[in-house]
Amino acid sequence: TTTLASRTVYWAIALLILATVQADEKTRALAPAFSGGILSVAVDAKNLGIVLDISESMNRVLPAVRAALREKVPHSPVVHVDGCSLEKPAPRAAMQNGIAPDPVTAFIALAEKVGVDTIFWNSDQGDPHVRDGIIALEEALTKHKLRLIMVSLKNKPNPSLRKLTEGSRGKWAVVQAAN
Fold it and tell me: Order of strands, edge to edge, in the sheet holding 78-81?
């Protein structure tokens, strides 16, 4: 069996390779479709990408989350983010070693490089969100026509983020991960 780490390395390499190719419909690889439940949340996507918060506050639940992802969506690209704070991305923000500097950069990379139409964002929603970050997220979701499914393992997302998620035809949930 393939481990989540090796799949993550595969997709990180694929994203780096694709970053050197001008993305257009003829050269862009597409993320796989998925219809089913992930962490008790119904997901139906033509092209599903995963953004996973790997910050220290997630350490306790990461093994269970990774096991669920490995079982349910073994071929979907996964981008790691160290935290879930929403801030306006730095100009030319880029991924390093498969880790995005912020969630918005992760969403944009998945949309532009592997053609996702749905993002499954898994975090604890324990970090702050600033207005510029919410605006940047809204712009990314709109520009790339992304649907956001936000799953928090601890805190309820703030009202602006909940509204933005629902406005993207997505949904949010607070769930308990087995640990």
Answer: 99-100, 78-81, 48-53, 118-123, 147-152, 171-174
Provide the whole-model pTM.
0.80
82 to each of 2, 68, 103, 121, how far by Cα in Å? 24, 20, 9, 13
SS3 164: helix
Range picked from 12-16, 70-74, 143-147, 155-159 for highest mean pLDDT = 143-147
Backbone angles phi, psi at 19, to 5 degrees: -65, -25
Element (H, E) at 131: helix 131-143
Q: Report the candidate in 9, 132, 3, 159 with the shortest Cα–Cα distance to residue 69.
A: 3
Question: Taking a C-beta distance cutoff of 8 angstroms, is the pair 38, 67 a contact?
Answer: no
pLDDT tens by residue, 123-143 = 888 887 888 989 999 999 999
